[in-house]
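Today's session is about reading a structure prediction critically. Students often jump straight to the picture, but the first step is always the sequence itself: look for stretches that repeat, for charged clusters, for runs of hydrophobic residues. Only then move on to the predicted structure, which in these notes is written as discrete structure tokens rather than atom positions. Here is the chain we will use throughout the hour.
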Amino acid sequence: MMDGNDLASETTRRGIISQAWMRISQVYQGTLDKWTPHTKGRWFGSFLLLMAFVIRIITKQGWYIVTYALGIYHLNLFIAFLTPKIDPAMDFDADDDNGPALPTRASEEFRPFIRRLPEFKFWLSVTKSTIIAFICTFVDAFNIPVFWPILVMYFITLFCITMKRQIKHMIKYRYLPFTHSKPKYKTVESTVTVN
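Below is the predicted structure for this chain, in token form.
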């Protein structure tokens, strides 16, 4: 049976642990907030991390299952990044026989493209999963012997089928998930010049 001193010390330990966890969470979130506007730098760092992982796999000649699982996970993240948050295939309010479509005229409702997986969460998931996979390459239990060319062929087949389906969906519902070729509109202040 616990007396009053044991109970108080247990409560104090829990409080210290929860405060430490809260502080770690705040530092982590603060660091992520600082990285948010630096898109190119974040992706460059993730690319370097992924290249370090690939170099480790090639030099150690193992952990192909980990690599395959990482590839499948990254493919799922990429598909979620390309998919709109509100899927037009599920919008059954359209009157025409072809099914629902995004607005094509000025009189129709404008719906901006909102991703199912935002860019920052996409980057964060890719980076975390690559770090976890890199750590797994130091554990021999994950080095399951497999014939890796079969995994490569299966991944290529899966990638082609998945991307073909995604591109057909994009063509059918007329949306483009990238902004580099879309027109950019200027504000009134930026078009006015002072002599």
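Discussion point for the tutorial: DSSP finds six helices and no strands in the chain.
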